[in-house]
Amino acid sequence: MNTAVVSPYLPLLEPINEFLLCTTPDEWIQEAAKAENLPIILLDHLHCELKAAQSAALLLRRYAVSESHGQLLLDALQPYEDLVYRGIGTLNDVQKSKQLSHALKAAESQPFADDIIERMSRLIREELHHFQQVYEIMEARNIPLQKLTASRYAKQLLQKVRTYEPEALIDKLIIGALIEARSCERFAALAPYLDEDIARFYVSLLRSEARHYQDYLELAQKLSETNISDRVKQFREWEAELIRSEDTELRFHSGVPAYA
């Protein structure tokens, strides 16, 4: 175990560890660190990077950008979705594809649209870059791209979202913050147990993931007319329950392995 790889990032991790109500269980780390489980971890990580970009794009299309610029978002994601879900194209095709423009146009009727666009468009660009990095690692290790069932983690958090606006958007942003924070915590928890190349890659993601969780929380508070602390606390409790409970499949955001 090489804890030195994470040591420079401990100050960055302090607010994240305070935000999350529990750390990743040792049982999950032990299972995820097994060499035979690395393909599953990397494959699910790849899917998670794409889903993070898709979720941010959906928020932009629904709450921030004009219809025509919403299509630009769909076009930017299409090559990634073709590769992952349909087996069409290669990493080279994705890298050559049309990248997300910085100049997305806000819908006039949407409050705080400019702020949402600035933060979420940057997040999308970074998540898609991370996707490419994970894919390169998989290719180098001859790990094939394949379909993978998602963990219950995000789905069960999304079931708690209120059905009216702007509370629905606020809840989705809080969930986004929790997913990014948990991802950051897990990168740091797992890195010391992995080989040097992947460990270095995982710690390289910590700074952007930490910023993403802050972006989501700050947007949620800006959009709310009242303090969101109580709602955030409720979601933190739900999130911790999922992490502490058992899961029958190993995924990047799964709970305690039921078979460990």
UniProtKB/TrEMBL annotation:
One GO MF term attached to the UniProt entry: tRNA 2-(methylsulfanyl)-N(6)-isopentenyladenosine(37) hydroxylase activity
GO biological-process terms attached to the record: tRNA modification
InterPro entries documented for this protein: Ferritin-like, Ferritin-like_SF, tRNA-Hydrxlase_MiaE
Source species, domain of life: Bacteria
NCBIfam families: tRNAmsioHdxaseMiaE (NF047790)
Record protein name field: tRNA-(Ms[2]io[6]A)-hydroxylase
Species this chain originates from: Idiomarina piscisalsi
